[in-house]
Amino acid sequence: MSEKNAVQEKDLFVSGHRACHGCGQALAVRHILKATGRDVIVITPTGCLETFTLTYGYSSWRVPFMHHLFENGPSVATGVVAALKAQHRDHIRVLVIGGDGSTFDIGFGALSGMLERGDDVLYICMDNGAYMNTGGQRSGATPIYAGTTTHPVGKKSIGKPQLKKDMPAIVAAHGAPYVATASVAYLKDLRRKVEQAMTYQGPRYIQIDAPCPSVWGFPSDRTLEIGRLGVQSGLVPVFEMVDGRITGVRKIRTRVPPREYLSAQRRFKHLLEGNRAAREGFEKICAMADSNIEKYGLMD
Amino acid sequence: MGDNGKTERVLEGSEAVALAIKACRPGVISTYPISPQTHIVEALARMVVNGELESEYVRVESEFSAASVLAGASAAGSRSYTASTSQGLLLMTEVIYASAGMRLPFVITGVNRAVSAPISIQPDHQDAMSLRDSGIIQIYVESSQEAYDTHIAAFKIAEDPRIALPVMVCMDGWILTHSYERVRLVEQEEVDRFLPPFKPIHFLDVNDPKSWGPIADEDLYMEFRYAIHDAMQMGKKRIKEIFSEWADISGRDHGGLIEAYRTKDAEIVLIAMGSVAGTAKDAVDHLRTGGKKVGLIKIRCYRPFPYEDILKAIQDAKVVAVMEASFSMGSEGAIGLDLKAKLYGRSKTPVVIDMIAGLGGRVITRGTIYKIVEQVEKACESGAVPFEPYWMDLKPEVLP
Q1: Would you call A83 an interface residue with chain B, using a CB distance cutoff of 8 Å?
Q2: Measured between alpha carbons, how far is B100 from B96 in angstroms, rounded to an integer?
Q3: Model ipTM value
Q4: Residues whose CB falls within 8 Å of the CB of residue B112, separated by 6 or more in sequence, listed in order
Q5: What pLDDT was estimated at residue B385?
Q6: Cα(A282)–Cα(A277) distance, rounded to whole angstroms?
Q7: What is the pTM for the complete model shown?
Q8: Which residue does chain A place closest to B203, by CA atoms?
């Protein structure tokens, strides 16, 4: 076997990193790179992924990898794409893997610019619904009524009062040809979507639900199970959009009551414990699950 | 000394810069408009769409992204360029720090303009000074001709593997960018010989994958930061060589890290940066005719700070008046701070007096410079070194 083939045999994302027990991201990244192959350059904005995969002298990446800052993953990627074009190396594809903080919030302007320009970048958002790298503060991706460290539950609060930004719709509204959501609980689907995304030119977006045991508050051996509950309850719709239109959804076979998903996590537990506001919050979340099922056609 | 500046044209300063950039054949140019930088990127856009310049021209949504595109492009192995000014440079600050830390050798034109608030689009040096500690090399120019020449040298400095740092060529907004001047251009073949294509030692390469931008905490962080300083200090020699190689090609020698103008027997030495140096030279000539032993140091390279050259040029001076177009609030002007720090503890040092002049574009005429010299003479006669800097032409009547 030639050396080149030997490398291809191996994973492009290797173990030995410093992710928390039960982190879904490392698993997802290994499968993402299986789907892209080795002719990619990965850019990662500051976030969990960068900090647990790259300590000086130790890297988990067998593809060229660059972290620069928190806000600029998309623009660094634009620069890489431009350079590849200038050097006639444009068979190499560019991938950004950011967290929800850099995607939904601090790097949102840069992402919007990249989408509007139509740069040939696959942007993957690892969505764990808060700023996990700093200990679980609210982000624009935090679901409504989740308790976070900067919007804790208390006498006057049942958690974050705002809805999660609908990023896939926002990205699609920019005219991105391919937009999808996925979950670490369904890796085959995730791989297929990355493969699919790689067949398009221009800006593409995949948002991956990646449960975080540390901050969501569940045992680290239940990551995939929690991910599945999210999808099966209708709270985490998994779908695919081509040219702004939904072309495929992951159907719910056996519907799980939202209570099962919520009660399994510390961040939502307060909703099941009694007072009126909490009860109303819980009802609202249940209604959201219904509305997702209807909106995306998640059940036959 | 050759004279390859055969083509002589009357050009707007911005156009001269654009022609220099074109001659450097950058692979990637990223742009976000901000006055008075706009004419540079507009001129480059015209060159690209007319097929005169083969370059990826990226229109971004902010200066933060403009600099970030350079970081990505540079890491991927392309020669990269942008221009900015004022708030735009401030918005780039975080990117510049990180890019210097990652040793990404792109070139920026820092069109000098005052920063908010209040909003002023007039020139001073506060914007570039705010990047003072970031690790970007800063070179200030006096004229459009010097801007043209320095930009070409800047890429060679940035890309030298012993230096490998971003370089900012600083030119005063409006005074240089928007005024017309006779500029001599160098033939493309000469530029190509001087500045061969960018060949980075490390770049984002799928055949030899490497990782960039790691965490390095207390066990290694200091060494990374020291390495930047070391590259700057060691690079001074190389920067001078590059300037002089270019002087051989172009026939124009603007000086090394500094230009010492009539400082040899000078008792009073003025220090200035940027376009005001021209006015100051004129004033020095006039004062010399009147019998005053006055000279000027024009600082060309501000970072790395060329204290060795400055100290040599002021060794016989009694007093040094530093003209500052920026101010460190709650302290004093940045150049004065640098210079005094290096003079401290040495024997037979001249008195250094800080002169804040020209903030927000307040006009500096020869008259202003005569007043500065008068002020300095007065201070010397009284024997008291002023503790606070002088704010030249300040209007105390409008202060609260």
Answers
A1: yes
A2: 6
A3: 0.96
A4: B85, B123, B124, B125, B127, B128, B170, B171, B172, B173, B274, B325
A5: 81
A6: 9
A7: 0.96
A8: A64
